[in-house]
Amino acid sequence: MKCRPTTKDAYQLLHDGCMALADVESHGIKIDLVQLERNIYTTSKRIEKLTARNTKSDVCKTWKKVFGRSTNFGSRTQLGEVLFSHMGYECKDEDRTKTGRPKADEETLSKLDIPFVQQYLKVERLKKARATYLRGIQKATMDGFLHPVFSLHLVRTYRSSSEAPNFQNIPIRIPWLGKLIRTCFIARPHHQLVEIDYSGIEVCVSACMHKDPRMIEYIKDPTKDMHRDMAGECYILRTKQVSKDSRFSAKNGFVFPEFYGDWFNRCARSLWDNITNLHLTLPDGTSLREHLKNKGINRLGPCDPKEKPRPGTFEKHIQEVENRFWNERFRVYNQWKQDWFREYQRTGRFTMATGFTVEGWYGKNDVINYPIQGPAFHCLLWSLIRLNNWLKKKRMRSRIVGQIHDSIVADVHKNELEDYLHMANKIMTQRLPKAWPWIIVPLEVEADVSPVGGSWYDKKEMKI
DNA sequence: AAACAGTGCGCG
DNA sequence: AAAGCGCGCACTGTTT
Predict the structure, then answer these.
(1) Cα A357 vs. chain centroid, distance in angstroms?
(2) I need a labelling partner for A53 at 20 to 30 A (CA). Which of A77, A99, A261, A344 fits?
């Protein structure tokens, strides 16, 4: 494998980016050490309490009988053996890892529907929060500040990575978990934490590559909504019947997976499971399962690559949705994928819009995805460099303190907030497309701002 | 004790 | 024909 910046611009971006990120690293983000200590304490108490309650269950008794002194509740391998070898629960082929061991992740274990297991998963999640996040942050905090490292030389796609600790995977999707961790990140006195992110930057960059007119239309016309439309197709709904949750399901269970190279077989399962997990319904409360039944689809189907999807199954329906998706709706995108991959096969290399050449052995999905993931981050990096330089030149008190692929986190003095938001918006949405003419769709950003002295958890959207 | 593979889970 | 992209970190269980 050989990856290198081939153009001078590409080299310069990494050079300047490296220096800007060194600044970010030295600035650091303020940690509320009292809050952190308190959260570790309450989390430990909850772990103790739940663990004590769990010890009374049948599963736990069997576990201790089987493993005796070496019983370790942290071992999911042991749990798998207890459940599947001693308690008679069935482990299907699809629920095994590639090495043939029974899977013991949340998705698989939840399906067993055993009260103990649900409690167990809750405890494990609390342990994860305490070990990786709370204690991880505590260990790395110096004099009340955390200085995560950001690197540009470790990622195959020329994105960045972050470590010690990783600032790019702090919980947010599960509300109580996000709160537990993010309340520990606070603004400096008289400052506010400000996070500005590019909206749908990967979709925008992909549109710049394949120039699919339907996709460009979706980006430019605010009345159009790709995820809403696909929710309509996947669940056979009229536009008005699409709820926020069914849109969410289509976005993360169909549209993005398809863009990244997944296929109907897995999408169907995920969309189907989401009906139950997210309680997807029609506006009148009817379950989408029931709704699909009325449309002649009463089961998922085996989703087995070896078996051809049968009529009347959800699997078959999603296969048809996929065909329309790639052969009608986004056929220009589809053509680009084929052409781009063929050119790679011919030459053994491809070059990103930002001037980085990648050569060596890659799979089809890699070749399609890298030139989107990389340049999408480069938009952010280019902007971060300019914003950081501007803050330095104007000798402002505000500082950039972190970056998460498509967003910039800054600790902004309350008197500089307006200027900061204005300049960030200008650099990110106006100067960048001028500097890089290959960007042919409008770029947008969103800003989240915390109260003065508030925490990262308290951030609220603010119009620029 | 240190290194390694395998798993699982957090994020974009 | 093949069948989601990219990371870092903690932990278990085994090997060196």
Answers:
(1) 26
(2) A77
pLDDT in tens, A130-141: 999 999 999 999
Strand B nucleotides in reach of protein CB atoms, 7 A cut-off: 6-12
pTM above 0.85, yes or no: yes
Inter-CA distances, A6 with A11, A350, A359, Å: 7, 11, 12
Amino acid at A229: D
Nearest nucleotide (CA of A407 to C1') = B12
CB of A177 nearer than 7 A to strand B: yes
For A349, the enclosing helix (H) or strand (E) is strand A349-351
Strand A2-5 vs strand A445-449: parallel, antiparallel, or unpaired?
Answer: unpaired
Q: How far is the CA of A17 from the C1' of C8 (A)?
A: 21
Angle at A252 between CA A409 and CA A228, to 5 degrees: 100
When the candidates are 3.40.50.10840, 3.30.70.370, 3.30.2320.30, 3.90.480.20, the CATH number that belongs to A2-28+186-203+370-462 is 3.30.70.370
CB < 7 Å to strand B — which of 196-235 in chain A? 197
Strand A356-359 and strand A2-5: the pairing is antiparallel
> Are A93 and A102 within 8 A, CB to CB?
no
> Strand, helix or coil at A285?
coil
According to the model, what pLDDT value does residue A371 have? 97
Closest CA to A29 of A382, A345, A375, A456: A456
Express each pLDDT in A278-309 by its tens digit.
999 999 999 999 999 999 999 999 998 889 99
A298, A299, A458 from A91: Cα distances, Å: 25, 21, 43
Read off φ and ψ for residue A421, nearest 5 degrees: -60, -40
By the 8 A CB rule, do A192 and A371 touch? no
Report yes or no: A412 and A195 within 8 Å, Cβ to Cβ: no
Please check whether residue A119 is in contact with residue A46, taking contact to mean a CB–CB distance below 8 angstroms. no
Q: Angle A115-128/A33-54 helices, nearest 10 degrees?
A: 160
Give the integer Cα–Cα distance in Å for A238 and A95: 35
- Give the bridge partners for A359, in sequence order: A2, A349
Indicate the domain borders of chain A. Answer: 2-28+186-203+370-462, 42-118, 230-316
Closest CA to A413 of A140, A26, A27: A27
Q: The sheet that has A399-403: what strands, in order across it?
A: A399-403, A407-413, A191-198, A445-449, A460-462
